Amino acid sequence: MGKVVLVTGVARQLGGRFVRRVLRDPDVERVVAVDSVVPEHDLGGADFVQADIRQPTIGRVLAESGADTVVHMDVTGMSPLDGSSRTSVKETNVIGTMQLLGACQKSPTLRRLVVKSSTTVYGSAPRDPAVCTETTAPKSLPSGGFAKDAVEVEGYVRGFARRRPDVAVCVLRFANILGPGAGTPLASYFSLPVLPTVFGYDPRLQFVHEDDVIDVLRIAADEPRRATLNSGTFNIAGDGVLLLSQCARRLGRPTVPLLLPALAWAGSLVRTLGMTDFSPEQLRLLTHGRVVDTTQMRETLGFRPRRSTAETFADFAAGRGPGLLPPEALAGAVDRIAALSSRGSGHLPSQSAN
Questions:
Q1: How far is 249 from 326, CA to CA, in rounded Å?
Q2: pLDDT bracket for residue 343 (50, 70, 90)
Q3: Which residues pair with 236 in a beta bridge?
Q4: Least buried of 88, 140, 185, 233, by fewest C-beta within 10 Å?
C-alpha cells in the first residue's frame, strides 16, 4: 500500500497547491486535506475533512485516516479566512498545534511529521548576527505576533520529537514567501503605492519563491534514502539578499522615510484601513532586516531553490504591475543624486576609494 498523507491548512492557496502536488507522487495512495474553512480552490483527488485543529476532533480524523505522514501547514501570520479575529489565528497556531501533536503522539501509524515554520523565530534586532544559522539564539525573543507563535510552536514540536523518537520530524523555517500568488503581509506592504520606510535604515531581506516552498515541502514529506536525511530544522531561502531600497526601485514605488514612532502610527492607520497588516514584527523587519544561512538546506536536506532572492522578487514584481515611477527612471534618478552628492562633497567617485 502507498503512503497516506494528512495536510492541514489546505484552505489557503499554498496548502491547496501542496495537496495537488503531493497527489502526483506515485508512492502516495491517499491525501487527507484538513481545514476549518471549506477551500475555494480545487484539491484534486484529496479527501477533504472540515475540522478545526483546535478541537479534539483532529485526533479522531488522524486516527481514522491511518496517516503515516503529517504536513502541518496551518501555522500562519496572515488574517483568518473566515473573517474572525486575529486572536483565532494565534489559537490555531499554538492551541491547534498542541492538539495536532497530541493526536500524533497517540498515532501508531505515524512515521513522519513536517512543520511549516518561519525565520521570524530569530527576531530582528540591532545586535543580531549578520547571518543566522539554525542554532542561532535570538538576541531578543519575540514578544508577540506570529513570531512568538512560531517560537512556541517549535517548542512544542521539539517536545513531541523527544517523546516520539521513532517519528522523523522536519521543521522548515521559511524566509519571506513571495510570488505571483503570494498573500503574505510583506506582499501586501510591497503592494502599497508608496512604501513607508524607517528613516536611516535600509534592511537586508531574503525571499523564497512559493514554487520552491512546494518543492521543499514535498522533499521533506518524502521517504528519505537515509533515516536522518529529512529530520531536523532547516532554514529555507533563495540565494542572495536585497536591500529594501533595491526592492522599492525594482517595483517603481517611491519610499517615504519616517521616524520609527511616525512609521508605527502610519502602520496602525493602514492596518485600520485594511490595506496591509503592519504588525510590530514587520516594523522590526523593515528596520533591522534578517538574513539566514542555508547550508544545511543544501547539504543535509539536499534542496536547492530554483529561484534566488532577486529572481523571486522579480517574479513577484512582474505580477504587481508598474508602480508610480518607472524602475529605470527611478534608478537613474538615484544614481544622479548620488553623483551630485559626491561632487558637492568635493570628492570624485574615484578619489573616494583612496
A1: 8
A2: low
A3: 174
A4: 140
